[in-house]
Design goal:
Number of strands: 39
Helix content: 10-25%
Strand content: 25-35%
Oligomer: single chain
Distance between the termini: 45 Å
Shape: globular
Number of helices: 15
Length: 691
């Protein structure tokens, strides 16, 4: 089998598995229709996500609720699709949409406060010079699934105390056990996981509180803490007591919440999926069978750069912990509310491609797009948009996106990452500023959180962790002193001349071959450099988006190969080492176009303002091909000949290559349609057309 065959035709397991917002007046026939439509577009799995806007006649976890989910699961089973169950009525997880607090008000979430004067109902823990430390109900809420239950609204469900083992056991009984009673026959086959979504100890919409639970003062004091020292949590004066508090709270959340869910899922044949509360929460990932993170609100974005800020490490956080635990997959809930300039529906094809590449080159191998909407009627279109599936302009061509995500998922799952640098870290301290130069110099690294340091050893000047050898370590607290601190003494995955700070690289061994995934992380600047790859054999290149393979011209440079690499803005490329010169000779040469059409070659023909589309035409003389159409357009460009679509492109520069074999003899006319952003329909209109 050719080593690239799994990429040419990726298995269904590598499908994107989007959030499917069940946010309307559900109907059995419509559920079936939408699932079939997903499958027709290359989407072979969904997260069944109860969402704001679901009909009030459908109560959370009611008989009617489960009846609709049964239709979804049975339909998915018949289509050989996969289902992930969502463990809450909206989010954050752990409260069963308020049912826990309804039955036991004393199981509501609690917090620690520093008060000048205690309030009625406060439990005084101690009096300090700075005020009273008190335990009180946080009054936190979660987002509900019916109108009137959102943040700040009267019926917003109360959040439960996920540090209380009794409350968590009740959450599992109400939620997980109910799903299992209904759908046990599908667990472990069609149903592959339970998604827990950013659990929060305090709940949403709280102020001036730190996480707490009843009786935690005794746990804290027994561990050697002084309650008075916890005033530092409110004054910003960190000390030994605040450090102990953070450690014990994290351990409590892990043991009481995550471990219980993880054990239940394992016992019932499904994976614990989802993500913890914060982008740099690495320690809670150990409880997930599929570690995950959440790319949301454009906290990471092309304009900010993929290496800036605490959230920039989220992809490495989940992927690195999965490697340490021997987990096959790690996920990211991606694209949620990642719109441009505060315009809720202005999410471009360029953005989506950038985010996919940003995640993949850092090791993410399961994409969970946020979201596909069951309904966009009325207020639903404004609830955490955009729809990146059926409600998007690119849905007719979504198989291109689904296949691209599947190829990347296959590559990053079946590929073994090469890495010579270890970065020691602590939870919520993943050192983004210090690792930024590693990304920018194309040096792979592996996070080693504090919990695994005990499993590491020094040997012959190297650091050994779980049979992985690291030549250098970015250390903390002087740990592992015999290992080199000079992380830049470790050769890069590929060496660039001149330096390319926007290039991201992942070096892998894929089915016995050395491969390099290269990503130009700039949306503005093309990349052109001589790149030296540590491989002695000839090289090929594979465009995972176009699904095309070519030979790569390279020359020997010692034990390496040097090649000229050009990447357009937002472009990715897989470089691979050939088995032999004969294999390289058999690869096709990349064909130069006989004719190239650009913006200036197209003339305005018409505009359909209702559909936010502009049509252009170009008259082409006889062309034996291939024909390249290279445009700068906003934003989706489709090329037609006699009503047949010859191709679509979604970000500038839009490049559509048409083989000569598909072109007619003699002169012909091409039509180009540019479709504007859905922001023109649901948000603030934005310009579209040829630039």
């Amino acid at each position: 089998m050719d080593f690239w065959e799994p990429l040419l035709h990726p298995a269904r397991e590598y499908t994107p598995i989007p959030f499917w917002f069940l946010n309307g007046d559900l109907r059995h026939a419509e559920i079936k229709r939408q699932l079939r439509d997903f499958a027709d577009h290359g989407v072979w799995g969904v997260v069944l996500h109860p969402r704001m806007g679901i009909s009030k006649r459908i109560g959370y976890l009611s008989a009617s609720f489960f009846a609709y989910l049964r239709t979804a699961i049975e339909t998915a089973h018949a289509l050989d699709m996969r289902i992930v169950l969502y463990d809450e009525g909206m989010y954050p997880s752990g409260s069963a949409s308020g049912l826990i607090v309804q039955s036991r008000p004393d199981w509501a979430s609690r917090g620690l406060a520093l008060a000048e004067t205690p309030l009625p109902g406060d439990h005084i823990l101690c009096e300090t010079k700075k005020g009273f430390l008190v335990e009180r109900f946080s009054l936190g809420t979660i987002r509900g699934i019916h109108y009137g239950e959102d943040d700040g609204e009267r019926n917003a469900p109360r959040s439960a105390d996920i540090l209380n083992p009794e409350a968590v056991d009740e959450f599992i009984r109400i939620t997980h056990e109910a799903y299992y009673r209904e759908f046990s026959a599908y667990f472990g086959n069609t149903v592959i996981g339970f998604f827990t979504d950013e659990p929060s100890v305090l709940g949403r919409n709280t102020r001036g509180l730190q996480p707490w639970t009843k009786g935690f003062d005794q746990v804290f004091v027994a561990a050697g803490g002084s309650l008075e020292g916890l005033t530092g949590l409110f004054t910003g004066e960190e000390n030994a007591d605040t450090a102990l508090y953070r450690l014990l709270i994290r351990q409590r959340e892990g043991e009481v919440y995550y471990r219980r869910l993880s054990q239940w899922c394992e016992k019932h044949g499904v994976a614990l999926m989802g993500h913890p509360h914060q982008s740099d929460d690495i320690e809670p990932q150990r409880y997930f069978h599929i570690p995950g993170q959440d790319l949301v609100f454009r906290w990471v974005s092309p304009e900010k750069g993929g290496v800036n800020g605490m959230d920039s490490v989220m992809a490495k956080c989940g992927a690195d912990m999965a490697r340490l635990m021997g987990r096959r997959r790690n996920s990211n809930e991606c694209f949620g509310a990642c719109s441009r300039n505060g315009n809720p529906w202005h999410f471009t094809g360029a953005d989506m491609k950038w985010y996919i590449d940003y995640l993949a080159v850092r090791g993410v191998n399961l994409f969970i797009p946020h979201a596909f909407y069951y309904s966009l009627r009325g207020r639903r279109s404004a609830e955490r948009p955009p729809d990146v599936g059926p409600g998007s302009i690119w849905w007719p061509h979504y198989r291109l996106w689904a296949d691209y995500m599947a190829r990347l998922s296959c590559l990053m799952t079946e590929g073994e990452a090469a890495c010579g640098i270890a970065v020691l870290c602590r939870n919520r301290a993943l050192r983004w500023e210090e690792v930024k130069p590693l990304f920018e110099s194309q040096r792979s690294f592996q996070y080693l959180p504090e919990s695994v340091w005990k499993d590491c050893r020094e040997e012959n000047g190297a650091l050994i962790c779980q049979n992985r050898t690291f030549e250098a370590v970015m250390t903390l607290d002087g740990a592992f002193p015999s290992v080199s601190r000079d992380v830049f003494s470790v050769p890069p995955d590929c060496a660039c001349e001149p330096a390319q700070p926007h290039l991201r690289a992942a070096r892998l061994k894929f089915h016995g071959r050395a491969v390099w995934l290269l990503v130009n992380e700039s949306l503005e600047k093309p990349l052109e450099a001589d790149i030296r790859f540590p491989a002695s054999a000839p090289l090929g290149k594979y465009d995972l988006w176009q699904n095309q393979i070519w030979r790569l011209e390279s020359r020997a440079d010692g034990k390496c190969r040097r090649a000229r690499i050009c990447l357009a803005p937002n472009e990715s490329l897989l470089i691979f080492s050939c088995d032999s010169q004969a294999e390289w000779d058999a690869l096709p040469k990349e064909t130069a176009p006989a004719v190239t059409l650009r913006n200036r070659d197209f003339t305005f023909e018409s505009e359909n303002k209702a559909l936010h589309q502009i049509t252009y035409s170009a008259h082409v003389p006889a062309c034996l091909g291939p024909l390249l159409i290279s445009l700068s357009a906003q934003e989706m460009a489709e090329v037609f000949l006699n009503d047949e679509c010859f191709g679509a492109a979604f970000w500038p520069p839009q490049r559509i290559m048409i083989p000569g074999s598909r072109l007619p003899r003699g002169a012909f006319t091409l039509r180009l349609t540019v479709t504007g952003s859905k922001a023109c329909q649901y948000g603030s209109p934005v310009w579209y057309g040829l630039g």
